[in-house]
Amino acid sequence: MTEFLQQIVNGLTLGSLYALIAVGYTVVYGIVQLINFAHGEVFMIGAFGALATWTVLFKGQTGLWVLPIMVLGAVLVSVLTAVVMERIAYRPLRGAPRLAPLITAIGISVFLQEAVRLFYPGAKSKLTFPEIEVVTGSALSIGGLQIQRAAIFTVGALVVSAVLLWFFVNRTRLGQGMQAVSQDPDTAQLMGINVNRIIVIAFAVGAALAAIAGVAQGLLNSNIDFRMGFLAGLKAFTAAVLGGIGNIQGAVVGGLTLGIAESMATQFIPGQFGGSAWKDVWAFVLLILVLVFRPQGLLGARVVDRA
Amino acid sequence: MAQRSVMTVGASLLVASLALAGCGDRGDETSGTGDTGGDAKVAKIGVIAPLSGDLSALGKGIQHSVELAVKQANDSKAIPGWTLEVEAVDDEGKAEVGKNGATKLAADDQIVGVVGNLNSSVSQQTQPVFAAANITQISPANTGPSLTRGADGNTRPYKTFFRTCTTDIAQGGFAAKFLIEQGIKTVATIHDKKTYGQGLVQYFTEAYKAAGGTVVAAETINPDESNYAPVVSKVAPSKPGAVFYGGEYPQAGPLSKQMKAGGLNVPLMGGDGIYDPKFIELAGSTSNNDLATSVGEPTENTEAGKKFLAEYEAAKFAEPAAAYGGYSYDAANAIIEALKTSLKDAEDAKSARQATVDAVGKVSFDGVTGKVSFDEFGDTLVKVITGYKVEGGKWASVKSENVS
């Protein structure tokens, strides 16, 4: 039983990371029907932004108070990257055949990875992420469960972000504008909504959450590297599809499901096909099963099919 | 029209990014050492190792140590009428990249011998390439036993392959004994599914069981990932006295840290792949008492080693000699020693390749890491292994032993 609960904890932690990144895929897809494959790199750049903030401003500091500033630095760098990316690479391709922006996204992904690798000092190998009091260090032991301190930060970040995002989408004018554009961009424009602005905001919101995930992963794994966005991005994209692409709640549910499926597969599938070597296989088997029986994803895709 | 022009912008951006990616992979090559005065003929010694990426700390040490040996040979005019040069290529620690690099070196007519690779899994791919071109290949770091002894342990697959370090059979056996001596009788094993990690864990497990220890869990990780919490949680309930990890420091460091952050407060132990300062950097302050074994005696503990490190220091290379510096220096000197006979009457470098292979098999001299000579399989006769422990943020040697 302890093992079961322990893996639930691990799964929720991993799942929260996936969910935070998946929201970025889903928000952008919901509005421009673009799979932004460079989103994993926005996540990676967030982590490097946090590290850079720490290195420049607080080198050697371990107090909890530096964490919010690191998060802020991460969010700034990520949002800037995403907005510039949208302006330079995606906006000119608006209205082009869908394959063009997709390939551009892959190109940007490679470009950003290599840019970090070449220009961030020491990024050619893994970099140590700073240890912060309270959120890193020895595990908390609660009733036989070992809970990593950074795991609490990660899950907490997801909860806070999800609440704020819900409020933003449902209770603000901008959020309602986003909903309108996702339903029908042409009519939304006729109603006086600035579609370009809404799209930039969608990119920025996704980037902010990805940046928080980047900091969380740095704290959890104690290191970051320029390739970290690839696998995380792939998993988060899977999570978004699993939950129903275009659906924000779906991204959260998909992320948590995927994370839990992975940790459960590590623990409970016995024999040759079990263990961590096969966890990704089982995670993707789950994805295939869901897509066979529920092609729209767990919570249903929220996409108006426009010809 | 506007639509079209923006399309071209997007396309050119893509092309630019791809081109940049291509450049990045080969950005670290350097070559050429020593003077090229007179009309001396040129022969090149290749270096093939990870010069970029996670393992570059080790690879750069290999490159510079070879450069040092070559520079000294040129300065002392070790081979009359010839000037030696170093040609370094990056294998990124990846088998496919290594194979391409080996092909590039083999196509260069001036190459007479090669030092490398770092990873056993990469050497598996480069061995046949060098063998086909009759080029001597001496690895300073490959500990995978099958590279010299074949799958059955008794047939040498390639006559051109030698190594200056010993194998995982010796290392795994020593590690097992070393751990029992530390009073640790139960262990969980984790490896990264690569040739080196898997082999090391296998030889360790055999020896550990034979020495009376119990393996309570056996797991693997995916080296591309960096979150090992699920594996740690799976291993923790079996209450191992230590975790034996087969793999390299880029994964071992974070694994050690996540073990302790996940409540598994036991030492992590590994082989020569984790014996690097970068391991401690990645594993952080909780890495004290982690253990490692590495081939040979600590370089700074022997007279010859001290001399080598002083000379390396004096040459002012950008990166330190790292774990395999001494072995690389000895490997390069073994080639140079062989070249003294093989190049003497040779017309050009290419025609001396076979003679070099034959001569390397017969060399015998006192190197940095002990006596440099090879048995009929191309293995070194020196089988010294040292056990290390992390103390106060540094690797401290605990004991050395000749296990042959």
- Which structural category fits the helices and strands of chain A? mainly alpha
Radius of gyration of chain B: 22 Å
Per CATH, the superfamily of the largest domain in chain B is: Response regulator
Reading the helices and strands of chain A in chain order gives HHHHEEEHHHHEHHH
Strands of the widest sheet of chain B, in order across it, are: 7-6-8-9-10-13-14
Largest sheet of chain A: 2 strands, antiparallel
Structural class of chain B: alpha/beta
Strand order of the largest sheet of chain A: 1-4
List keywords for this structure.
heterodimer; A: 307 residues; mainly alpha; two-stranded antiparallel ribbon; 3% strand; B: 404 residues; alpha/beta; Rossmann fold; 2 domains; seven-stranded mixed sheet; five-stranded parallel sheet; 13 helices; 14 strands; 20% strand
Description:
The complex is a heterodimer of chains A (307) and B (404). With 307 residues, chain A is mostly helical. Chain A is built from eleven helices and four strands, in the order H-H-H-H-E-E-E-H-H-H-H-E-H-H-H. Chain A has helices at residues 2-32, 39-58, 66-90, 99-119, 149-171, 173-183, 185-190, 195-221, 228-243, 248-268, 279-293, and strands spanning 127-128, 140-142, 145-147, 223-224. In chain A, helix 1 (2-32) crosses helix 9 (228-243), helix 1 (2-32) packs antiparallel against helix 10 (248-268) and helix 5 (149-171) packs antiparallel against helix 8 (195-221). The radius of gyration of chain A is 19 Å and the shape is globular. Chain B has two domains: 41-166 and 300-373, 3-Layer(aba) Sandwich (Rossmann fold); 169-295 and 386-402, Response regulator (Rossmann fold). Chain B has helices at residues 2-25, 56-75, 95-106, 120-132, 146-149, 168-181, 195-210, 229-235, 249-261, 277-283, 303-314, 325-342, 353-360, and strands at 41-49, 82-90, 111-116, 136-139, 161-163, 186-191, 214-220, 242-246, 268-270, 291-295, 365-367, 370-372, 384-391, 394-402. In chain B, helix 3 (95-106) runs parallel beside helix 4 (120-132), helix 9 runs parallel beside helix 10 and helix 12 packs across helix 13. In chain B, the strands form three sheets. Chain B has a seven-stranded mixed beta sheet, sandwiched between helices. Chain B is elongated, with a radius of gyration of 22 Å. Chain B is 42% helix and 20% strand. Chain B has 13 helices and 14 strands. The chains are: A mainly alpha (307), B alpha/beta (404). At the A-B interface, helix 1, helix 4, helix 5, helix 8 and helix 10 of A face helix 1, helix 8, helix 9 and helix 10 of B.
